[in-house]
Design brief:
The protein has helices at residues 15-32, 49-61, 67-86, 93-117, 122-129, 131-146, 173-189, 216-226, 260-268, 279-285, 340-350, 376-386, 388-393, 421-431, 457-474, and strands at 2-7, 34-39, 151-154, 193-197, 200-202, 208-210, 231-236, 257-258, 289-293, 302-304, 317-330, 357-359, 366-372, 398-411, 436-441, 447-453. The protein is an alpha/beta fold. The strands form 3 sheets. An 8-stranded mixed β-sheet has the order 3-4-2-1-7-9-10-8, with helices on both faces. It has a 6-stranded antiparallel β-sheet with strand order 12-13-11-14-16-15. The protein starts with a strand and ends with a helix. Bound molecules: adenosine-5'-diphosphate and magnesium ion. Magnesium ion binds at residues 8, 214, 217.
Length: 475
């Protein structure tokens, strides 16, 4: 049996967490046989190594030559402290310290180059931001060896083949499968534990790419698919997927089972607990996915399966994305004119901006959709250019963006079609003075998304969450 386990930033955040993580790896090995570990960069909240790397690159780009050396020292401190706590002086301590020093050096050199050139390409950013994982896996693998087990740290640049879309690279399934099996199977055969970097991959030319923020979850699923794993487990710092972000809603409860669709919807609309792309490789190969808490390992966490118990019409979780804008195209001349929608979304796609949500406005005289606030101006500009003629003829009167909007999404299979649920949600919002700007029902039939003013988002989430907790009573 093969199990792929991914450990998030806090799970490798310091020596104590890495010890806990090593325990979990060894326990899993006893029951499963083959265990492949994927690890994130060290990330004791609020200091995440990946953020430090990115900040170094950004400040260097801005011409600031003082910040990145400070960040280098801070990173050195974080990694050295873990190494001191885990590796004995007689063992590999010096060797691993030297390896970490090499990465920190490289970080400083790259930031230096960025500041001199005044240029920061997505490619350079990927080379810099992926180093956190390269450092953490070396420490964790060395610790497993110190405990007396065969283990090897592996850069996923050797395993995950991607396209050249830096910052958000897409894995190529066949090439990844071939490389992963060729590299990992011999290790597994001799009972060694591969500890693989999350987040990164490489192009066919061997240039480092990254899979998008939070992409280590995706890495685990990609490797699970490549190895025909029996399960993929994501270890994090909460008891699985919860009914709301526990940092925002203290009363949030852990959800025992969810379907892939429900989790995809939650992740897509802001629930950071799992990366939205993680589900796809698992669905394709029917690999069950579990989310568990490193700091509370006996808690069952959340199991995600296609045939998870379908609690039809149960509200399971609520999530929100802030910092989005609603773009509206409005005009009487749009009625019955074919192709306006196609041209609208074509223009947005050409800007390489993805649309988070499209809503059905009450009148047919407008099209509304949501994009990240940072792209709103570009979208409005692009649309004005695309519809210059229609604007001139006043067939389209106005293209505008409303900023500081939030999308609140409620997830649960069947909630769209279960009588009375939407009514309860809207009365709960209305009773609490949340003004609903627009509504969209996801195509997957397991979610309802509501557009509200950014300042109302917290109240909306809180009140919908109260409904989730109460529903046993009215069901
Ligand atoms: P990791 O470093 O392990 O990947 P993340 O910070 O990426 O951890 O994800 C875990 C965090 O996701 C939790 O600490 C929690 O604050 C946040 N989160 C947001 N929404 C949810 C939710 N619905 N259920 C659980 N956690 C959530
Ligand atoms: Mg994460």
């Amino acid at each position: 049996m093969t199990l792929v386990m991914k450990f998030g930033g806090t799970s490798v955040g310091n020596a104590a967490a890495m010890r806990e993580t090593a325990d979990l790896i060894l326990q899993a090995r006893d029951t499963w046989g083959d265990v492949v570990v994927v690890a994130s960069a060290m990330g004791s909240k609020p200091v995440k190594v990946t953020d430090l790397l990115l900040r170094g690159a950004d400040t260097a780009f801005a011409g600031d030559k003082d910040t990145y050396p400070r960040l280098a020292s801070l990173m050195r401190e974080i990694h050295y402290e873990a190494i001191d706590g885990l590796l004995s002086p007689e063992g590999e301590r010096q060797i691993i310290l030297a390896e970490i020093e090499r990465f920190i050096d490289r970080f400083s050199t790259l930031c230096g180059a960025v500041s001199v050139l005044g240029e920061l390409t997505p490619r350079a950013l990927d080379a810099i931001s992926g180093m956190g994982e390269q450092m953490s896996v070396r420490i964790l693998a060395a610790y497993l060896r110190e405990l007396g087990y065969e283990s090897e740290a592996i850069d996923a640049t050797e395993l995950i083949l991607t396209d050249g879309n830096f910052q958000n690279a897409a894995p190529q399934t066949a090439g990844t499968r071939e490389r992963t099996q060729a590299r990992l199977s011999p290790l597994l055969r001799v009972d060694a534990i591969p500890v693989v970097t999350g987040f990164i991959g490489a192009t066919a030319d061997g240039v480092t790419t990254t899979l998008g923020r939070g992409g280590s979850d995706f890495s685990a699923a990609i490797l699970g698919q490549a190895l025909d794993a029996d399960e993929v487990w994501i270890w994090t710092d909460v008891d699985g997927v919860m009914s709301a972000d526990p940092r925002l809603v203290p009363g949030a409860i852990s959800i025992p089972t969810l379907t892939f669709r429900e989790v995809s919807e939650l992740a897509y609309y802001g629930a950071k607990v799992i990366h939205a792309k993680t589900m796809r490789p698992c669905v394709e190969n029917g690999i069950p996915l579990r989310i568990k808490n490193t700091f509370n390992p006996t808690h069952p966490g959340t199991v995600i399966e296609e045939d998870a118990v379908r609690t039809n019409g149960t509200l399971k979780a609520v999530t929100a994305i802030k910092g989005v804008s609603m773009i509206t195209i409005e005009g009487k001349g749009m009625i019955g004119v074919p192709g306006i929608a196609a041209r609208t979304f074509g223009a947005v796609a050409r800007l390489d901006i993805s649309v988070l949500l499209i809503t059905q406005a009450s009148s047919e005289q407008s099209i509304c959709f949501i994009v990240p606030e940072s792209s709103a101006a570009a979208v409005v500009g692009g649309l004005e250019a695309a519809f210059a003629e229609e604007l001139h003829r006043h067939d389209i009167e106005r293209i505008w963006s409303r900023d500081q909007i939030a999308i609140v999404t409620i997830v649960g299979t069947g909630i769209q079609t279960t009588h009375g649920i939407a009514g309860r949600i809207f009365s709960a919002l209305g009773d609490n003075r949340v003004n609903v700007i627009a509504i969209a029902q996801g195509s997957t039939e397991c979610g309802i998304s509501i557009v509200v003013a950014g300042e109302d988002a917290g109240r909306a989430v809180e009140n919908v969450h109260a409904l989730i907790l109460q529903q046993e009573r009215w069901r």
